[in-house]
Design brief:
Blueprint lengths: L1 H20 L8 H27 L6 H25 L10 H25 L4 H28 L4 H25 L3 H40 L1
Length: 227
């Protein structure tokens, strides 16, 4: 049991630590990051219940519809809602890169609890595969979501557009991920390039967010200096 818990928790904590430590300016309070992680973890229970009802009632017959609505939209919407309602207005969200940290945190909270459940069901031998695919993909969806939420909060214009994209982009990517996994026969041949693209995109967004945070801090310094 201890081995399964360790294998289930370790990938999420490692990925969260990576994005947290990449914050080059004012690191987020650990308590707030942990709280966001717990919010994401708690989302597993209502989402799994809703998905169980969908499956039991056979509401979604098509694999395409199931991938994008039963899984992607449901999971990404709840994570997006937490970020928008709890994190977005909070005083600690004070620079663009913070969206990356909190987006990764809420997604990895969800992914970690989901991972533990799957490992208890399937066995610890699936730990590496789940760390490389479901856990890391959730982290990357969260990074992309957080990037656009950060743009939405700190851009002078088009705030609503960025907030919309903060849900639409991870929804599309997550749906594509699930569609490849549950529909295509030789899914490995499609998943490898998709995951490479996903890592490239998320790391690119994280780098852009750090640059935006640098500009943001420079402007704050200049305003303070000239006062």
């Amino acid at each position: 049991m201890l081995g399964i818990l360790s294998a289930g928790i370790a990938p999420g904590l490692a990925l969260l630590s990576y994005f947290y430590l990449k914050d080059q300016y004012e690191s987020e309070p650990f308590s707030m990051v942990f709280k966001t992680f717990i919010f994401g973890a708690l989302l597993v229970f209502p989402i799994m219940f809703i998905q169980y009802v969908f499956q039991a009632e056979q509401i979604f017959q098509s694999n395409l519809v199931s991938a994008f609505l039963s899984t992607s939209l449901l999971e990404e919407f709840f994570k997006w809602f937490i970020l928008l309602s709890v994190i977005y207005p909070h005083v600690t969200f004070d620079e663009p890169y913070d969206g990356i940290v909190y987006g990764a945190s809420v997604s990895l909270g969800f992914a970690t609890v989901e991972n533990i459940f799957y490992l208890f069901t399937l066995g610890i031998e699936h730990a590496i595969g789940r760390a490389l695919l479901p856990v890391s993909s959730h982290a990357l969806f969260g990074v992309i979501m957080g990037y656009y939420i950060g743009k939405g909060k700190f851009s002078a214009t088009n705030n609503r557009k960025w907030i919309f994209i903060s849900l639409a982009a991870p929804f599309f990517l997550h749906g594509t991920y699930d569609y490849i996994l549950i529909t295509l026969k030789y899914w490995q041949y499609y998943m490898v390039p998709f995951m490479i693209f996903l890592w490239w995109l998320a790391l690119r967004k994280a780098k852009k967010a750090r640059i935006l945070s640098g500009h943001f801090h420079q402007m704050k310094y200049e305003r303070t200096f000239h006062q």
